[in-house]
Amino acid sequence: xxxCEILCLPFARKRFFMYNTEYNSIEMRERGDAYMSDLDYxxxxxxxxTTRFVCFVGESMRRFDLAITNTxxxxxxxxxxxxxxxxxxxxxxxxxxxEGYLEHVYKITExxxxxxxxxxxxxxGVINFTDI
Length: 132
Fold this sequence. Notes:
Layout: E1 2-8, E2 13-20, E3 25-30, E4 50-57, E5 63-70, E6 78-82, E7 88-91, H1 93-97, H2 101-106, H3 110-124
Antiparallel strand pairs: 1-2, 2-3, 4-5, 5-6, 6-7
């Protein structure tokens, strides 16, 4: 079953058009309808992961408490959680090169982002494409 979501104006109600491959039909549903409680899972799986917990303080005197999770998902990128703020991002080497990315995701200053980038560049490593 395929899902397509559109925003219908002027009422700003979200409507979902579902293509049911089993019956070769299209169904329209609206958010809040009683039959929307049926969930169409895109995926539901479990896997063993490894998590590294790291705490460090840089020259800015900002303490970073991080949980860095390795998983087979996200094309080899790491799942990095700031345990103080609860903010999480999927980070790879390309994300570290993007200007302003860490500042935006973790709501930190430019100076703090430089310290975090220096640390994460040692941790993140090269991306491995496991889906190919």
